[in-house]
Amino acid sequence: MSTGEDRVVTIVTGAASGIGAACVRRLAERGDTVVGVDLAAEVDEHVRTLGGALGVVADVSSSEACEAAVALAVERFGRVDHLVCAAGIERNEAAHEMDDDTWSRVQRVNVDGSFFMARAVGRHIVAAGRPGSVVLIGSINSAIAMPGQAAYVASKGAVLQLGRGLAVDWGRHGIRVNVVGPGVIDTPLNARSFADPVRIAYYAGRTPLGRHGEPSEVAAVVAFLTSADASYVTGAFVAVDGGWLAGELPPSRMED
Ligand SMILES: NC(=O)c1ccc[n+]([C@@H]2O[C@H](COP(=O)([O-])OP(=O)(O)OC[C@H]3O[C@@H](n4cnc5c(N)ncnc54)[C@H](O)[C@@H]3O)[C@@H](O)[C@H]2O)c1
């Protein structure tokens, strides 16, 4: 076992639930020192239960909170090598009924939060002169829209372009930046949908693999993208969606 000094340090936001929690578990299992960041007060306990090293309560929509979380990780563990931005929120509301606060909050958490965390980690990695990587969790909604989700799809489209912008900026510093686009994944974010059998049947029918995904299946791709196996992958959008974005299915399959 390596010492704390030479272990890879990875920060995961949204670490207390769903995809972020699965990333904490997966990356800790491979030996990373994982620092989880989340709004949830119990994040430290949760992250340690998953095998992570530390959980930090922070709101990623605050640039100061993001800077402080990264500074704390560097202070405690000496370095940061990888960042996974999984903190995110969704609001279902018709565009013409949406108020300013709903629109802004979704952009602030999903877009500003990804940028603030990536900037804080990028600054550290550039100064350290070591290679590193960032994975932003986008969505199939980075590429396509669904009704009632104007704020969310706008934010996820921006996350995709943010990832590309960072990849182009930071390639010369050896920082790879990729965007993962999950399809329908069984997490608390989707609790309402998963409680509705009609909706779940529609999702399964609409997905070429015929089922929803598990958070661990997204975490496996995040693990690849933050590994040396992905050393020539940057600026990519990797859908983890059971084939959703590959195309439409014929009506017969939709009725299965
Ligand atoms: N579940 C899906 O089907 C699905 C599909 C596509 C994309 N995504 C994306 O994956 C990411 C993770 O989603 P999930 O399904 O695991 O959701 P989740 O609700 O299970 O987990 C999200 C976590 O982010 C945290 N969080 C929310 N706002 C925060 C903030 N301001 N600061 C810090 N932490 C904050 C929450 O406390 C929560 O622990 C999100 O970006 C989401 O948009 C999810």
TrEMBL record:
Keywords annotated in UniProt: NAD, Oxidoreductase
PROSITE patterns named among the record's database cross-references: ADH_SHORT, PROKAR_LIPOPROTEIN
Task: Note the Pfam families from the entry.
Answer: adh_short_C2 (PF13561)
Is Cytoplasm set as a keyword in this record? no
Q: Which InterPro entries match?
A: KR_dom (IPR057326), NAD(P)-bd_dom_sf (IPR036291), Sc_DH/Rdtase_CS (IPR020904), SDR_fam (IPR002347)
Molecular function GO terms recorded: oxidoreductase activity
The segment(s) forming the Ketoreductase domain are: 8-173
Its family remark reads: Belongs to the short-chain dehydrogenases/reductases (SDR) family.
Q: Which PANTHER family match?
A: DEHYDROGENASES, SHORT CHAIN (PTHR24321), ESTRADIOL 17-BETA-DEHYDROGENASE 8-RELATED (PTHR24321:SF8)
Q: Report the protein name in the record.
A: Unannotated protein
